[in-house]
Amino acid sequence: MVTVEQVRAVALSLPQAYEALVRDRVKFRVGRIVFATLSRDETVLGFGFPEPERESMVATRPEVFLLPPASDMRYSWLCARMAALEPEETAELLVGAWELCVPKTVAAEFSSGRGAAGPRPGSGRIGP
Hints:
Number of strands: 6
Structural class: alpha+beta
Strand order of the largest sheet: 1-2-3-4-6-5
Strand content: 15-25%
Pfam families: YjbR
Largest sheet: 6 strands, antiparallel
Organism: Motilibacter peucedani
Number of domains: 1
InterPro entries: YjbR-like_sf, YjbR/MT2646/Rv2570-like
Protein name: YjbR protein
Helix content: 25-40%
Distance between the termini: 24 Å
CATH class: Alpha Beta
Mean pLDDT: 88
Number of helices: 4
């Protein structure tokens, strides 16, 4: 089981990431792009995830993963039950979601352990 505090610690450790409260939901962003969010009751974690792979994740581990609501299916997004996630897997999912919305150079610097580059130019949207 992963806790809100563990999710927050990982998400906020990523370069350029910050937390926002939007309509009573915790969201983690880079610039204006949301890369992860918690359900209002904090039992489900939504995060950026490659669209071609999400159906197979849900099919292979339905006890953990679920598709986002129909209104969010247009985004590269997947959801997971926090009670079924382990901290290590959660960290991998959050880093992967974050990598979808930062410049490739920032992700590469983070992966190599050098830290973050300057502010993110422009903005896009991968999730709710």
